[in-house]
Amino acid sequence: MNVSPDTQSHPEQTLDGFSHLRSEMREEIGSFRERFRQNDVLLSSRVSAGLPMGVPIDFTLGRRVMRKVLEEVADRGEGCSLEIGLDSDKPFPGAGERFELALRLFGAPERLSRIREAIEKRMARLKPDGGCSVESVSEEGMCGWRVLFPSFEKPVEVAVEAPVPEVPSEGERSPLPESDFAKEYPHDVLVVDDSTVGRRLTVQILRNLGYDPEQAENGRSAVRQVRERRFSLIFMDLRMPDMDGIETMHEIFLVRPKGARPAVIALTAEISDVERDHCIDSGMVDFLTKPCRPDELCAAIRGLSRRATRAVAPVQPAKPAPPWQEAPVIDEATVRTLWEMPGGRLATLLEDLYEALLREVPESIHRVRDAARKGEVMVLRHEVHQLTGNFDVMGARRIALLCRTIGDCAKGGKMDEAEVRIADIEPHFEAFRAALDGFIAGAQRKG
């Protein structure tokens, strides 16, 4: 298979005729992000969870189509929204299976009509080859283009990108490539976590490994789903309102007979020796510290195949947490790890989770203020708990500790102090946003 000059200019993105789709898509999009922000154009990207890091095709046509659409929308698309996605009908496509690049533009009909006409003129000069084709699609409020790539000439077995950084425990093998792990360790998985961002992180890691997990936002939802479906593995947040992780597990064990019970792995930001012993005595098989790391999750799943609880080192006495004002605004190690992981709807997991966080935080802050004003202590503790979990996952150390402090005040009946601290949430969230935007901009410049 010939590799085009366009692809050869980026040798790190190809290997023996393979195209590194995520990197190539991110590279095209990255050069337009600032123009899109300036012109009030919303830009989002996604890659099907099962699409491998590298596929044996020439992606030149896809890059050219992206570039033409991006250029036109950057100039004329004020107020519009552009979504770019790489989609496959099947996870881990192989010989005889196709995938497509889809670009969909949403906006006012008159503006879309002008943009589409200009893009169609530019598309007319393209000459698809190698079995590729370009189709235009439209419906009310949307116009778009699909680049259809031919069936693969050989099964996809190579992951061009280096595996996710790992710190394996003694005796553990390194994680398998994404396309192999779920095949070697098959499970029907449920993720239970009241933190939207934390749940999304765990789910995306599992999807990157080839699983198709279900989700539950609380214990009652988890029990309901277990009644309807036989899961073999559940990742369970320990600290949830209404029903905590252990209560939820007990209810699940009542639903399922002993021989058909799922393995339950705890998810927790912090745990004491007493709690750990109680969880093991109750039937949990392992623990993962939030935010979840891919290498630790892989090790925990491998441990299940040995039908034994993985040895866990005793908890060391926790050092007193520093005052929240002294904590770093952002934990760069956490955000860098999230940046290096592929996302679901967007190109990186960091961007995926950040989008969810920006969508949820304003309303969450409003509910926190309202609960404090009305003196609703339990509601306030629940809302602050969710904010804490979401910020912990994103590496927002200072504001996470601030929210934990507010929760402690509410728990201790110090509502006046809690209200004073609540006023600090918004400015410190803006500081976190500025720091994270700066990190993302720097990472994009580095390519």
Protein architecture, described:
Helix 7 packs parallel to helix 14 (377-393) and helix 14 packs antiparallel against helix 15. The chain starts with a helix and ends with a helix. Mean pLDDT is 77; it is low at 1-18, 90-95, 153-177 and 307-319. It is globular and about 65 Å long. The relative contact order is 0.09. The strands form three sheets. A five-stranded mixed beta sheet has the order 3-5-6-8-7. A five-stranded parallel beta sheet has the order 10-9-11-12-13, with helices on both faces. A three-stranded antiparallel beta sheet has the order 1-2-4. By secondary structure, the protein is α/β, with parallel strands linked by helices. Helices cover 48% and strands 15% of the residues. The protein has three domains: 5-149, Heat Shock Protein 90 (2-Layer Sandwich), CATH 3.30.565.10; 178-305, Response regulator (Rossmann fold, 3-Layer(aba) Sandwich), CATH 3.40.50.2300; 324-446, HPT domain (Four Helix Bundle (Hemerythrin (Met), subunit A)).
What's the structural domain tally?
A: 3
Radius of gyration: 24 Å
Order of helices and strands: HEEHHEEHEEHEEHEHEHEHEHEHHHHHH
SS element count, helices: 16
Strand order in the largest sheet: 3-5-6-8-7
CATH class of the largest domain: Alpha Beta
Distance, first to last CA: 26 Å
Helix content: 40-55%
Shape: globular
Unreliable residue runs: 1-18, 90-95, 153-177, 307-319
Q: What would CATH call the architecture of the largest domain?
A: 2-Layer Sandwich
Q: In total, how many beta strands?
A: 13
Give the integer mean of the pLDDT values: 77
What is the CATH topology classification name of the largest domain? Answer: Heat Shock Protein 90
Describe the largest sheet: 5 strands, mixed
Given the helix and strand composition, which structural class is it?
Answer: alpha/beta
CATH homology superfamily name of the largest domain: Histidine kinase-like ATPase, C-terminal domain
The portion of residues forming beta strands comes to 5-15%
